[in-house]
Amino acid sequence: MPLDMVRDSTMENRRWREGQDVAGGVCCNSLWLSSRLCSPKKVKLAAPSGSMNLDDKDDERLPGVAVEVEPQDADYAGISLSDELENLISARVPRSESWKFFFINRRFLSLMKSGELYQLRRDIGFREPSVFVLASGDSSWVEFDRCFNSCRKLPAPPTDIAFTIGDKETFCAGNHLLVLGKEFGGKELSFVIWRYDLATNGWFRGPDMEKPRCLFASASCGDFAYVAGGIGSDHEVLNSAEKYDPENKMWESLPGMKRRRKFSSGIFMDEKFFVVGGRDENNNELTCGEAFDEARRTWELIPDMVKEVPVLSSQSPPLIAVVNNELYSLEAASNELKAYVKATNAWKSLGPVPVRADFNRGWGVAFRSLGNELLVIGASSAVPFAGHGMSIYSCCPDPNAPAGDLRWKALDSGRSQRSSHFIRNCAVMLT
Fold first, then answer.
1. N or C, which terminus of the chain has less Cβ within 10 Å?
2. Which PANTHER family did the record assign (predicted)?
């Protein structure tokens, strides 16, 4: 090869490597595996025979040198991570970024679709909440990250129009989003469950409850979900309860409650499943609550648990959520946030909430636990007649703080103003 061509190749390679120290490092830190998708080439100098002093700067010795072209990452081919270590690193990547794993190789694709990655996250205690929202007028669910900085539209379930436009109940268990409603089974409507699997990004039918129902209380704890009460297929108000295990996709019957209830709400607190408020089989308001101790397999009646909470006609089930093992309530009549005092079985006012829960008697408002924060979504109290899109707020409540000391933080994904303020369903998934 002519001397000037080899010299040019050497200078170009040196300039590229000097630039790699600055620019290449940034690229590797932001997306390490992308370097394998487009590997720059490197010119490697090697003598065909004998020895050569590479430190000698005399260009006259360069004629006769062989030129070999190799991938830039060839020098690092011997340094690699084990599959186990790669999995541990991947498990800590935020879910809003994990979709990129699908484009790396088949092993990562299989890791994502099998659900193994989510199991690994549970094993190492790394979980993050995702919020699933179905607003009025939307045909598909939208998944938001915890800070509502990014969102993703879910595929629509392969169901009929009756299920799509009808009332639905929603909760999460493990990496399953369960949506319960009614669709045509022959000539009449019947209860059905559609299950969204986060790992496969697909919808599946069932499994059905032991006693299908609607307007029931539900709560999630760890990988399990609990339901109780509601209205059965024969329009009977139920006191039965069930537990869902996403691992084997099965329902387990639990001992029945002491009261039949519909329009009640459920939470998990003090390692117990609580069912609060609602109406009995005679449509009378219930101010008591019940707590299920799974270890003892018994229900404990708690009289007057929501006696101080005013009830409007045609009001939604109680808007309650648990943060740091403390129970909070959004009072629909006054738009006030209240904290439950366990020692006295009473409620303490903490201040106003920046959404209009009174606009539709509590309906259309999402009030959920989001890790160590409260999440509320609905019509903004700052906008008259709720004429704009949904407003999203979070706060870290303190049950011992004086009234009016709440600090609400506004969240916005950019999509919120394009969606209705009336929230039909909302569920939080920890994966």
1. N
2. F-BOX DOMAIN-CONTAINING PROTEIN, GALACTOSE OXIDASE/KELCH REPEAT PROTEIN-RELATED
